[in-house]
Amino acid sequence: MKKLKAVKENKKNILFASIGLTIILFLLISVSTLASQRLDLNLDRCIEIALEKNLGYQISQSSVEVKEAQSEEAEGAKKTNVKLKAGYIRMNEAPDPESIIEGDFSYLFSTGQGIPQISVSISKVLYSGGKLESFIEQAEADQSIALNELEQKKQEVIYQVTQAYYRVLQSEGLVKVSEQALTQINAHMENSQALLEEGMIAPIDLNRIKSQLSNLEHNLIKAENGYELAVYNLNSIMGIDLDTMINLQNNLSYEPCEITFSEAMEAAIQNRPEIKNVGQQRIIMEGMVDIAESSKKPQIVMNLESGLSGWQVAVMGEVPIFDGGINDAKIRQAEINLSQVDQSRKQVEQLVEFEVRSAYLNMKEAEKLIRVTEQGIENSMESFRIAQVKYNEGIATNTEVIDAQSALIEAETNHLNALYDYNTNYAALIKAMGIW
């Protein structure tokens, strides 16, 4: 029996060990699979993720909700106010001091008469001199400002994502340029080693090639690191884990922009949230003037109260006669603030114009550079090809080949930079126009 029991225990332990090992292997495979997965993203999807997860944008959304509640509060001040009051009061008569025996406090607990209290009060402001209406207009203007700020934050997030997106594509392109250059120099080294064995070149030429190889490896390491940092930056803006591996579906390309400068400026004046907010600020300052002026006008309030003892209606009016010039001073302050808003509008429009003009000119500059660098790549590729042919035939030096390759690397890098500058400045122009 003991042997049978021991065999059963061993089988049980082996079974548990097998199950445990299977679970561990499954988890390891799952983790490995998840780690190897990449998110396939395009620019639109990156923007969607950022608007879902960006904390700054979420805070702006909460501010809009607060302003909506404040607007409802301001509108409520004009409506009829109704209150129900209910209670119970117990009263007893005050005892005669002469009848109180020393040390006897029983009078404190003597029964008295209970009186219920129930009343309904209704109040409404009949005339406020325009003060309540001004409060409502101000609250609505605050709500519009919050909405405009939310739109502004949205456009900032979209631009940040777009800029980071194109930075990843640019960095990816630089990695490819460096890898291609390494492939070319390795092929050139193999060819040069064969020529050295034939006595057609000197050993110093091979050393020069090795030096170029070392420089290109250095460039590749920096390019790969730059790509990783660009991915981390994009992931950070999108609000996802920094280690998330992503695969961007689009390429860094050129699409002509048909927008003229005058069209861009017209759109900016109409759509920029900052300019719209200046208009809302003017409404608020006008309201401050009206509120200050309303303090010099009559205020009329009606109160109606009904209870067990009956009801009463009261209409109370209040007219300021003399306040030592306080209201006049408030009116002057509000009028000065109103004039400052008009001045700030001009300042905002100047800043917007500068932003539009800068983005437009930088975009046009990059557009020209794209054409120039495209031609530069063609010329550099041909020069590199000719230098290699001549070198193989013994009529060109190793320095000419390396110089031609360096020129080709520079041309390809300049082309990538021009594409990045064009796309990011095009995005900056759209943001400056306020039409995202």
Give a quick summary of the entry.
The chain is α+β, with helices and mostly antiparallel strands and 436 residues long.
**CATH topology title:** Outer membrane efflux proteins (OEP)
Mean pLDDT metric: 84
By DSSP (H or I, 4+ residues per run), the number of helices equals 9
Shape: elongated
Q: What composes the largest sheet? A: 4 strands, antiparallel
* CATH homologous superfamily heading: Outer membrane efflux proteins (OEP)
Give helix and strand order, one letter per element, not per position. HEHHEEHHEHHEEHH
CATH class: Mainly Alpha
The beta-strand count equals 6
**Terminal Cα span:** 82 Å
What would you report as the Rg, rounded to the nearest angstrom?
Answer: 40 Å
The strands making up the biggest β-sheet line up spatially as: 2-3-5-6
The number of distinct structural domains comes to: 1
Which percent range describes the beta-strand content?
5-15%
CATH architecture: Up-down Bundle
Query: Any low-confidence stretches, pLDDT <50, length ≥5?
Result: 1-5, 29-36
